[in-house]
Amino acid sequence: MSIFTDFRVKVYTPKLTSVNVTIPVQKTEINAGGFQVIYSNTRYVIIPRVSNGAMLRVGGDITATGNITAYFSSDKRLKENIKPIENALDKIEKINGVEFDWKDSFIEEAGGEDGYFIRKHDVGVIAQEINEVLPEVVAERKETGMLAVKYDRIVPLLIQSIKELKKEIEELKQNK
Questions:
Q1: Helix (H, G, I), strand (E, B) or coil at 146
Q2: Which helix (H) or strand (E) holds 92?
Q3: What is the spatial distance between Cα 172 and Cα 165, in angstroms, rounded to a whole number?
Q4: Tens digit of each residue's pLDDT (9 = 90 or more) over 26-80
Q5: Residue span of the structural domain in which 24 resides
Q6: Model pTM score
Q7: Are residues 37 and 124 in the same domain?
Q8: Do 45 and 91 fall within a single domain?
């Protein structure tokens, strides 16, 4: 059996001397702070040269045809004031899962139907309904004032609802 005690890794990075951008932008810059392409206050890409914080900041939409893997910090040691979501079933009753068609103006603004991300017919929830029962998962987009939903953050409400349903079923079985 062999044990490696000396690991040496050489990393070669290309030396950037220029960047060509084919859309009109306010600023393209490589400096000690990192790399940035600024189109407007709400549309930009920045790769900072700092060891803390986000490694990439993007203003505007990000699309990818491949997988995107991400994790949110959820360690109990990072949290305080922890308590179960109350009346989860009542909250679920106030929201609807819906089928709908995006307005043509939205589809055009998003670059048109592409078969991956932008399709005329879709499913989802209504942000205003979610905002009434779980405002923590709704955000207002600064540039348009439109509401957006962090769909993954609805999962805790669903978990708690299932627990409430299970408790009701158990009570019904006992009272039979």
A1: coil
A2: helix 88-93
A3: 11
A4: 666 666 667 778 778 778 888 887 766 778 888 888 877 777 777 778 899 999 9
A5: 8-60
A6: 0.68
A7: no
A8: no
